[in-house]
């Protein structure tokens, strides 16, 4: 029982981080929050499985290292090198996006309540937390202007998928691991290559400059 | 073993191409690998039931069809690419050629995978392999296009992963297996709510790769900025593979008793895609972007055909072949015209018929074919889909489709015809490009096949189509 309450507490923490990310105006804080979310996610498979095997341990260490340290470091470096302003520039204001995020969370809870779960997952908030994090990532992707904040949006979306993967980590660990690792790889790929090239060509990470291609 | 060889061949060829030091000799790896791939594909398609890796790799009937299209299209493009790269000596092809081959390897893996997870990995890998292809020209505009392609594509693929997870969770049982055969057999034990969520997520995810509206935003940019040969491979090959992925998921959904729900979603996304494409095609000044919108339109027609059910599925599969081959001709001839005028805006391109008569003629035929004019192949498949809509008493769907096809014809015609007619304007300088054997003959052959499909579908192809349609309607 204690194990289940700890997991749910962590999931509530993730939901709160989602709202914080939608409301913050500082890119550094956004990176920090995404990193913290990654670390929380990294330890969760150990709690869910209830025991530590070699592979779950390795996955946990790998996820914490990548999501909590490597990717945030890369993002901070990009932020430094591009010398962009530290503010998040939203297309839609912070309060409206927070409200949308809250609405998304409520909807996620409503949808999740209609989906039957296996007995061992019934007490957990995994499904609503997962859907709500996906919605948050989607909102960050679509309502923020800078390329770097869009990348963070993608990483948050990926966190949401990772949470859902917890439901499957016992039954099909291989699928979950390969999927998450590949997604992470793509995240790093997008961050490093594109930010590098956009920096060089445009001397900025503002995607509004990336607007010569439109109707 | 056969299927493993089919996937390994292009991957090994990519390694060889990357290791070759000579810029001028590297492109020749493409036709050699393509010929080997085509030969192996034909053997695999005619083999009774090839499978490898304990059933993870196998060729289902729809897979045979897509493999044939992919291999033929790649062979066409590989010959063209040799000619094309001679005109682009100023740019290194050290990344371009290996990535084309990796693209072939990974899309072949999509076609052959019989495992939900493996198929997802293959779609992801083929996206990564194509990103450097779009960036070939190294201009700020091509970076912008690559950025959108990767970001939108990755979000789509991430949602497809979530959908795969949901489907996997719905299928949990005594012996969890994600092979399509097992999923089909157990589909009627799956919870319908989970199945619906899974289908919606997978439709959005793989629909992004197909370029269905409203997830199509990457397409005009990527097709507009990428070299024509990449556009041809993406519009004919990549999208067909994503369509195949969607078909497999649709099949599972149908076996689980949620076919009506899935069909409804497909019809809505199909009509929306055709409508969006028709609107943006009116008054389009950039002819490569126009082709991108045409691709969005035809992806809409494909899912609409499947959504209508019955012989609509047969028609959609036939249309996939017609669209893939015609798109090849259109993108490659458009690339020739682009090269001859050094512009892809219809404000500067005039009199293409006079400057490059062969490419101009092929572009005209391609335009007539893709807009559904007889006697070309797409006419037959589009006619079947429209008639299926009326046969199923879906009068609004059928009528709407006819109206939108008319708008597309007018919109595309207003862009294409001024390009081809008249005299080249004096300030439009003559570039060094001339139609040659390598950049002409593969297109002529493809166009002839499209014409043949309109007059008479060869019986082996028809047998493949019937098998695939029957397989997709079968519920184990």
Please explain how this structure is put together.
- By secondary structure, chain A is mainly α.
- Chain A has one domain (2-202).
- Chain A is 75% helix and 0% strand.
- Chain A contains seven helices and no strands.
- Chain A has helices at 2-23, 27-49, 54-82, 94-113, 126-143, 147-165, 173-202.
- In chain A, helix 3 packs parallel to helix 7 and helix 4 (94-113) runs antiparallel to helix 5.
- The longest helix of chain A has 30 residues, at 173-202.
- Chain B has one domain (2-473).
- In chain B, a hairpin with a 4-residue loop joins strand 1 and strand 2.
- In chain B, helix 4 packs parallel to helix 10 and helix 13 (311-341) packs across helix 19.
- The two termini of chain B are 27 Å apart.
- The chains are: A mainly alpha (215), B mainly alpha (476).
- Chain A binds chain B through residues 111, 114-116, 118, 130, 134, 138, 141, 147, 150-151, 154, 157-158, 160-161, 164-165, 167-168, 171-172, 174-176, 178-179, 182-183, 186-187, 189-190, 194, 197-198, 201-202, 207, 210-213, 215, and chain B through 116-117, 120-121, 124, 128, 135, 140-141, 143-148, 150-151, 154-155, 157-159, 161-162, 164-166, 168-169, 172, 176, 178, 191, 193-194, 197, 220-221, 224-225, 280.
Tag the structure with descriptive keywords.
heterodimer, A: 215 residues, mainly alpha, B: 476 residues, two-stranded antiparallel sheet, 19 helices, globular
Tally of distinct domains of chain B: 1
- Helix-strand category of chain B: mainly alpha
By oligomeric state, this entry counts as: heterodimer
Instruction: Note the run of SSEs of chain B as H and E.
Output: HHEEHHHHHHHHHHHHHHHHH
Query: The biggest beta sheet of chain A, please?
Result: none
Mean pLDDT of chain A: 82
Using a beta-carbon cutoff below 8 angstroms, give the protein chain pair with the largest interface and the number of residues from each chain: A-B, 45 and 41 residues
